Amino acid sequence: MRELGSPAGTRAVALLGPTNTGKTHRAVERMLEHRSGIIGLPLRLLAREVYERVTARIGESRVALLTGEEKRIPSRPDYWVCTTEAMPRTLDADFVAIDEIQLAGHRQRGHTFTEHLLHTRGVRETWFLGADTIRPLVEDLVPTAEIERLPRFSQLRYFGTASLGSLPPRTAVVAFSIAEVYELAERLRQQHGGTAVVLGALSPRARNAQVAMYESGEVDYMVATDAIGMGLNLDVDRVVFASLQKFDGRELRDLEAAELGQIAGRAGRYTRDGEFGVLRPLPGLSPRRAAAIEQHRFEPLRRLVWRNAALDFGSVPHLIESLRVKPRRSCLRLIEHAEDYEALVALARRPEIVAACRTEERVALLWDVCRIPDYRKLLVGSHLELREQIFAQLCGPAGRIDTDWMARRIEHLDDVQGSIDGLIHRMSFIRTWTYITHQESWIENAAYWQERTRAIEDRQSDELHARLTERFVDRLGGRRIRSAPRRRRLPGAPAGPLQAASPTAAFHPFQSLANLALDDLAWQDDAEDPETWVEALVEAGHDAFAIASDGAITFDGRAVARFRRGPDALRPDVVVLERDDLGAGARRRMLRRLTAWTRDEVRRLGEGETPVDLDALSAAGRGLVYQVRQGLGSVDATEARSQLGQVTAEDRKSLSRSGLVIGPIGVFVRTSLDARARRHRAVLWSVFREQELPIDRLVAAPLAFRLDDDLEPEVYRRIGYVVRADWAVRIDAAHVLLAEVDERLRSGPAPIDASFGASLGLPWVDFAALLHALGFRSDDDGRWHRRSRRRRARGRSRRRP
């Protein structure tokens, strides 16, 4: 990213408008048009949602997820999806977007958004997305920005007041305290059969499970806090406010019209109109306020919250003084009651803390410790004590947090018993420890502790989702609950049928999957809970999945999905196989994960383990990479003649570092030719051509063999062979053979004996025939001649009518 004053070519755009204008969608699409990008989002729930949307398109190997408590960073990501506070400051990305930029006026968080508005820039393009209320301040602070105002796709209408019993399906009821959320959810369960619950305190895993239950139609109602107001995509027709006041951490206050509009705007999706109203016995909104929300007319922001970014770490008093510096512009105001600043002031009163801050590094460390978030939002004194203890240990001889001390505190939180509130409290505290473990210089064996805290949060999330569902979903008496209750098969009992989520044409080669038995999928009584197993699938690493010969995607040896023909061989559609003990929401999460895995697997075939740095290549080099990708990992030299003739020496070095081999007979990725990769290539081609192929026979094919008439040569090319005359030879074996023979004939015609073909397992007669097919010729005296230039470039392909 670039600071303000970066090259004039950098373009700044402010995309402003109400909810349901497609701002975030457009920004994500624009980011993917660039070679690199970063998008900052206001909630980790929204960051996770966007991450899942992007990875379902391009795979997980190119996308990083970065929030305060979660880091998923592949070896060389092109795109970063982050919470705004966690956006990396030292990366240069072509495109940068900041979502919900109007939060620059927020009392506690606003200074981070203001900092990005003033200083964060993409190398080529920067987008600011948000409400139109910030437009005058964007025009003032970023005068070069292009302002684009977007209309809402659908209409938003105020319907007045309604009772809880009269609410139609696809309604979200919004409250601003956990106690009120629980009360409303219980009443909805009694009157309508059940509801999903969405709280800001939920982990992404628990929230996604609740939302998936709602989105799939397992329940038709949702009770939520204002967490749904920040861009989360929900299929909501009507938003009903159960309260018009909220406690903001300092006081109980009335919600402003713009805040109500942000939440009410969740109603309606794309071009479908939405409604909003108030739950009785509250009085309805005034006509003026209701009209303002309908027409998206709100008072513009007057000032943004600001904090000095040029901090002085010379001493603790200097740091405090630099944090008190006031902005010079009248449209900015200094942040008030910042939690990290107040923690710093409190710790600065303790002589032992000040005495430990003898260097700038120690002062900066103290500031980092003060910024450890307290997700519990309850025990201010307790959290201050935690910060003090951590700082003391970091200043100790080891310079790290004591492992035993940390282990005892984390172990104490590893508990899924107790009430829902108790679970949420422990999960909030484990989020704080997750944040701490991601400060890798503070922790011995940080990766282990990150996995440890994540595993605890995952278990608590699963239990919390189960508790919320058990409490607020009446699976026996609910009128709208469509998912069947979980059932477990007794050992030895027959399993139910496994059916595809959508019908398959009778001629499809994988139609037989629809009739597979559940024996390899069913859980025994002592096995994992089905939903827990789904979570394991969603979070599994790349190597946990594979493609079977029959076209099924397997997880830990169990068929979970199948392929269907997509727009090309590189992008097959994925169809999750249904089970009657899994709800539609769980299947949707599986589909996202399996689609992302498929994109990564196809990318690995075409690029190997190390992604190709396209920026380092010439146009011919990039074209060659494109050809290899289209060939699922290899391309015959005859098909890439123009690119091969123009690639530079630097291209060859760069491609070699990425695992691509350029030879006289073609270009290939080494890792795309092992048995697993060739199986995947054969299945992908079979699905795309909708042609049943002998997958196992193709995978077991020898390095070189004469072609028969039952398969087209193109099939062999797609699994890594080159075809010359009536011979097929695997491209890596041909590459080695040609190098050896060319070396033998370097000084002129020479005899070639059968030992040259020993690795191919061919008798001399067949080996000689293969050499002729590859363009060599022999004299009557047994000497062989090198290929002519013409035949080296053109080769010969076997043609069929």
Protein model, in words:
The protein is of the alpha/beta class. It folds into five domains: 11-149, P-loop containing nucleotide triphosphate hydrolases (Rossmann fold); 156-295, P-loop containing nucleotide triphosphate hydrolases (Rossmann fold, 3-Layer(aba) Sandwich), CATH 3.40.50; 307-398, no CATH class; 499-600, no CATH class; 614-794, no CATH class. Helices cover 38% and strands 16% of the residues. The chain is built from 27 helices and 32 strands. The strands form eight sheets. Strands 4-3-5-2-6-7-1-8 form an eight-stranded mixed beta sheet, with helices on both faces. A six-stranded parallel beta sheet has the order 9-16-13-10-12-11. A five-stranded antiparallel beta sheet has the order 19-23-22-21-20. Helix 3 links the parallel strand 6 and strand 7 (125-130). Helix 6 packs across helix 18 (584-607). The two termini are 56 Å apart.
Pick out its properties.
801 residues; alpha/beta; Rossmann fold; 5 domains; eight-stranded mixed β-sheet; six-stranded parallel β-sheet; 27 helices; 16% strand; disordered N terminus; disordered C terminus
Summarize this entry quickly.
With 801 residues, this protein is an alpha/beta fold. Helices cover 38% and strands 16% of the residues.
> Which structural class best describes the helix and strand composition?
alpha/beta
Work out the number of β strands.
32
Q: Give the strand content.
A: 15-25%
Number of helices: 27
Q: State the end-to-end CA separation.
A: 56 Å
Arithmetic mean pLDDT? 84
Domains (count) = 5
**Level of helix content?**
25-40%
> Tell me about the biggest sheet?
8 strands, mixed
Biggest sheet, spatial arrangement of strands: 4-3-5-2-6-7-1-8
Rg calculated over all Cα atoms? 31 Å
Q: What low-confidence regions span 5 or more consecutive residues with pLDDT below 50?
A: 1-8, 477-527, 789-801
The 3D shape can be described as: globular
